[in-house]
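User: I'm putting together a teaching handout on how sequence relates to shape, and I'd like one worked example. Could you take LVIVD repeat-containing protein from Nocardioides phosphati, show the sequence you're using, and then write out its predicted structure as tokens right after it?

Assistant: Happy to. First the sequence, then the structure tokens directly below it.
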Amino acid sequence: MYMVPTPAFRRLLAALLVVGGLSTAAVASGSAGAETSWPAAAPKATCGPGSLPETSWQGRVPKVDYDSGRAAKGYFCNTRQVAHQGASGGFKVQRYTDPAGHTCAFYDSTLVAGRDVLSNTLNGSGLGVQVLDMTNPATPRKTAGLITPAMLSPHETLVLNRKRGLLAAVMGTLATLPGVLDVYDVKSDCRHPKLLSTSPMGILGHESGFAPDGRTLWSAGVAGTLAAIDLTDPRLPKLVKLQTGVVYHGVRLSPDGRTMYVANIGNPSLSGLTGGGLRILDVSQVQDRVPNPQIKVLSDVSWKELSIPQVAEPFTKDGRRYVLEVDEFIDLFSLQALTSMKTSPVGAARIIDVTDPVHPTIVSNLRLEAHQPWRRDAEWGDPGASFPAQGYAAHYCSLPRTDAPKLVGCSMILSGLRLFDISDLRHPKEAAYFNRPVVASKTPVFLPPAVGSWAMSAPAYDAARGQVWYTDGNSGFYVVQLTNGTAALLK
């Protein structure tokens, strides 16, 4: 069963999300104007044999498909389902192979803790971070559920350092929590992680980032903090830097850990947000453990279609450095946007050249037709489309490799898992998609109703098998096989 929220309920919920800390940008002027003034959608994928393509424009699941029963069949283009596990999902999927050769998946099972504790208990999905033995990806086998404080409600902080075999998370919510940090050893046996420490070092966490050498964990809080935690001894985390007065989301680092790429939410106010976008920081003094380390802003860059900057994943190609930046949701902050959600910006994703960290430049955009503002009025009646934290928008993107990747995987909420060919960085195109919308929940779920997709997780990849792993908040963990030649893009 599910409850369809009334317009008054949606407005109340949107206001609560604002108070809770889901800040975002001001409405772009003229967002419903000429189509030529907005970044174009990526060219559609050409769907090969075995596909079950979308029936409307790119990324849309129209209400008529729910009414006719077509939505229940799903939408697949150059993909097929290999396996499915559980009935809920969160924001991250991590893949890891330990020294003994065991391959595991780790995924958080909750989007909003209070909502999902009840529903996950009723549907049998289990609480906390789920651990799966992926020896045979066709039959995932659950081996553990991590239910220490941070793992019960990690929000967007679940992070893995492969070099040291450390899995960590900070207790958070859509706003923030005090910041309990849990650190696990997964190197000994990824199927049975070992708790190394639980400490209060996360400081108001919401998102996170790991230095590649595994010595520094960064906890970012939309409540206005950025904390650097020394994990040289993961059994004894130490706070080495606390910055306040910043509203940062995801933080990612260069290979040497000295440059940070920040999804900067910016400066919220009731009239909108200013200063949001990508911020590049020099964090070398933290990396070098200089006493009283200072963090230096190198540059900022923004874009017209900005919504909520979510994360910027670094990669390299042909000797140049880039980040794949993705925005989440729509404009949820300004009062103007909350009263005109049909025309609020959808930031989606973009590739930014950061070779010169002082002068970053936007190279290209990764968008769907469903993200374009002139489509939104027609989409408004689609299930989930009018819910402020669901809808046709992006949430997380990730890369299968950091050196010359050819594929980008994105969870784009109602549009499901979207896969883009970035072989030509200036001209990305869609390669495949996989979308399994829920047509009705089997257990009572509220805020929002469990209808449609709620694909929010950063995907993980099994390049050798040509597979992508991701979760949908409304239906669980999926192993997706790329077909019709698209698996080659993972190599």
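A couple of points you could highlight for students: The CA atoms of residues 457 and 475 lie 12 Å apart. The longest strand covers residues 308-317.
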